[in-house]
Amino acid sequence: MVLTLRNVRLDIPVCTTETRTLKATLIRSVTGGKLSRSRGGAVITALQDVSCTVREGERVALIGHNGAGKSTFLRLISGIYQHTAGFLEARVRVFPMINKSFITSPELSGMQAIKAHYLWVKGNLGGFQAFTEDVVDFSGLGDFIHLPVKTYSQGMVARLLFAVLTACTHECLALDEGFGAGDTCFYERAQLRMHSFLSTTGTLFLASHSNELLRRFCQRGLVFKEGRIVFDGPLEEALTQYQKSA
Question: Is 8 left (phi over 0), alpha (psi -120 to 50) or beta?
């Protein structure tokens, strides 16, 4: 098994003065998990009673409306969030391709940001030169790669980030389709690179609203609703269940 979850719950505290307007009882919204009051403010139960096992090499689609828990699940299994209760075991590193910004300082140059990311993923600089050449060539940034990231346009940052994240293969990947790839003229090249990148990934968790994309890369579907997995099975059955509930 690559990943095992049993009765996992994730509570996220909300620190705001606005919680005094909430009712004392549980509130359920159309999207998201349960919202309740506590002494310290409010608590959102973003995931509840989540159980599943995933084997090596499985391609798993995460299906559900916005706020159903898909992105939260990706953050949980990749270690960005820590579960509040239940059992969770990841036997391989789940690499998150979720955020739209670098984890490093914008004061760094593009080249320094590439190096910081490479060291974070690999732990050493073996193969760094070839990696850098690929990223710089694909991003099309040229000499701008030596300037601080804070001087880049949003499109330039997106192109650099996309090139960096898709330049390595990963044993297990957590991908949110909303990640994005930058400006329109870059989109077609990015799609080709993304498809090639996904085909080399071992185990995949893919959150998307595109049935076409899910059918291309996934065979199994997890349907999320209000922070719970309400269906786990073959992809086509999962898509059918989601369409019925929607």
Answer: beta
**DSSP, res 148:** B
Q: Of the candidates 175, 220, 241, which has an alpha carbon nearest to the alpha carbon of residue 59?
A: 220
Q: Report how far apart, in Å, the C-alpha atoms of 94 and of each of 161, 187, 237, 243 are.
A: 18, 26, 26, 29
pTM over 0.85: no
The answer to whether 216 and 39 have CB atoms below 8 angstroms apart is no
Q: Are 203 and 57 in contact (CB under 8 A)?
A: yes
Residue type, 11: D
What are the residue ranges spanned by the domains of the chain?
Answer: 3-93+208-245
Tens digit of each residue's pLDDT (9 = 90 or more) over 102-118: 667 889 999 999 999 89
Superfamily, domain 3-93+208-245: P-loop containing nucleotide triphosphate hydrolases (3.40.50.300)
231-240 tens-digit pLDDT: 999 999 999 9
Q: How is residue 209 annotated by DSSP? A: S
Q: Which residue has the higher pLDDT, 130 or 181?
A: 130
Residue matched to tokens 């995949």: 204
